[in-house]
Amino acid sequence: MQETILVTGGAGYIGSHTAIALAERGHRVVIVDNLANSSRRAVERIGELARAEVDFHEVDLVDNEALGEVFGQHAISSVIHFAGLKAVGESVAEPLGYYRTNLISTINLLEQMEANHVWDLVFSSSATVYGDPDLLPIPEDAKLQPTNPYGRTKLMIEDICRDVAAADDRWRISLLRYFNPVGAHPSGRIGEDPRGIPNNLVPYVMQVAVGRRDQVQVYGDDWNTADGTGVRDYIHVVDLAMGHLAALDHLEPGCDVFNLGTGTGASVFEIIKTTENVSGRPIPFEVIGRRDGDIATSLADPSKANRNLEWRADRSLDVMLADSWNWQSKHPNGFADDDPGAPTDAPAPDPDGGGASPMPTS
Ligand code: NAD
Ligand code: WQD
User: Fold this and answer.
1) How close is the Cα of 18 to the center of ligand 2, in Å?
2) Whole-angstrom Cα distance, residue 15 to residue 13?
3) What is the model's pLDDT at position 29?
4) What is the rounded CA–CA span in Å between residue 287 and residue 220?
5) Which domain holds residue 17?
6) What is the three-class DSSP state of 323?
7) 321 lines ligand 1 (CB under 6 A)
8) Which of 125, 141, 346, 357 has the fewest CB atoms within 10 Å of its CB?
9) Which ligand number lies closest to the CA of residue 183?
10) Residue 341 domain-assigned (yes or no)
11) Best CA proximity match to 142, nearest among 168, 179, 106, 172
């Protein structure tokens, strides 16, 4: 049945990939995004790739009145909440901006949902709520000990959702703790497009591969890991998108939480080596000191999501990095570049063309 799904932050990296999957399943997608960290071009490509109309509202969720007008214009049945600021280092430098944006936008959203009798919510949480884990792989009932303002906003929002659901049993909320999303839509026409110098490893490596940056700085090779570099649980952004559809399908009264990861780790050196293999480009690097706040290993126990959501991440690291490279090589400067795959008067491009992993249609 076609439902109208509000996707906050839907012009962003994970939101745009999820919006395509929702539209391909036949849902009506309404995107609210203030374009603070994304491009209107991403919204245009969502519609082209999904061959569907997408409603877009350039709205800041901190503006409660503007958000209320969006609810007044659409018969929204459920919400996926991606919108927010997400850079750890920036949150340390500007904590008030992070608390204000991430918390107030979420409280506004929950109040508008309640006022409009919309009770179904999927929220983008993060493995960063675990901090430096005591246990590996990390289960959902591990100790929650975020070590930075960004991670603390995620945990605060989780607690707000738990309290809201405990107060009114009409709420059905799923909190999804993502590990390390990478990769891009198989068409190579949307992907991760960080502003300025990428904080994260994979977009930085891809910018070195495409010639935008000289070399990768490896933050330490003296960690307690197999090759001494940091190990993370990388998950393909398309697998992550499908995890949101699964969460929507399995919403239950109350508030539940799920790890979305693969359960398999990869080191910095493995990312560099695999990117050289899939791109055919050399990736020069220099080992420097550890980054403040970094941890040796982060690895999901995804068994609860596998079981309860009937969902599993199945795209390999090779496919993740081949799809990242496909996007980056076609768009060396991200969305600022003209789109080589842009539709002309020829028939709409095949969304599965060119990538290494077909976009699921189920
Ligand atoms: P992103 O920055 O690409 O997307 C977030 C979107 O939200 C952007 O389009 C931005 O313009 C928009 N936005 C920000 N503040 C807003 C506001 N006040 N009002 C309206 N729109 C606003 O980030 P992403 O990587 O797609 O992450 C999406 C969500 O997933 C975020 O909540 C992030 O914290 C979470 N998350 C991301 C990662 C990751 O590594 N990418 C990992 C775990 C969790
Ligand atoms: C991965 C590995 C680095 C960059 C972050 C946030 C987390 C979440 C996901 C939002 C680590 C190493 C990195 C570089 C390097 N975001 N590295 N050189 O730190 O696991 O998680 O993104 O929720 O909150 O903390 O991801 O990609 O930054 O780092 O050596 O230029 O690569 O030390 O071992 P991280 P990352």
Assistant:
1) 22
2) 6
3) 98
4) 6
5) 4-181+234-260
6) helix
7) no
8) 346
9) 1
10) no
11) 179
Mean pLDDT of 352-362: 39
If one counts the domains in the chain, the total is 1
Burial-class residue 346 by CB neighbours within 10 Å (0-12, 13-18, 19+).
exposed
Is pLDDT of 341 > 70?
Answer: no
pLDDT band at 337 (very low <50, low <70, confident <90, very high): confident
Evaluate: CB of 128 within 6 angstroms of ligand 2: yes
Pocket test of ligand 2: the residue of 178, 285, 294 to mutate, having most ligand atoms within 8 Å of its CB, is: 294
Kindly report the CATH number assigned to the domain that includes residue 12: 3.40.50.720
Quote the tokens at residue 78. 């459920």
**Assigned domain for 356 exists:** no
Catalytic pick among 98, 150, 178, 234: 150
Task: At 2, list the tokens.
Answer: 């076609």
| Structural tokens at position 63 | 């503006």
**Comparing 346 with 188, which gets the higher pLDDT?**
188
**The two three-digit tokens of residue 88, written as one number:** 């750890």
Q: Of 106-120, 122-136, 157-171, 336-350, give the lowest mean pLDDT range.
A: 336-350
> What distance in angstroms lies between residue 181's CA and the mean position of ligand 1's atoms?
12
Nearest CA to ligand 2 atom 24: 128
Nearest-ligand number for the alpha carbon of 297: 2
Kindly write down the DSSP assignment for every residue of 7-59, as one continuous string: EETTTSHHHHHHHHHHHHTT-EEEEEE--SSS-HHHHHHHHHHHTS-EEEEE-
Mutate to test the pocket of ligand 1, among 6, 37, 258 (most ligand atoms within 8 A of CB): 37
User: Phi and psi of 99, rounded to 5°?
Assistant: -65, -40
User: Is the model's pLDDT at 187 over the cut of 70?
Assistant: yes
pLDDT tens for each residue of 21-51: 999 999 999 999 999 999 999 999 999 999 9
pLDDT band for 228, please (50, 70, 90 cuts). very high
Q: Does 241 contact ligand 1 (Cβ within 6 A)?
A: no
Task: Measure 112 CA to ligand 1 centroid, in angstroms.
Answer: 20
Instruction: Please tell me what DSSP assigns to residue 170.
Output: T
Q: Assess if residue 66 is contained within a domain.
A: yes
| Residue 194 included in any domain | no
Residue with tokens 């891809």: 206
Interval between CA 12 and ligand 1 midpoint (Å): 6
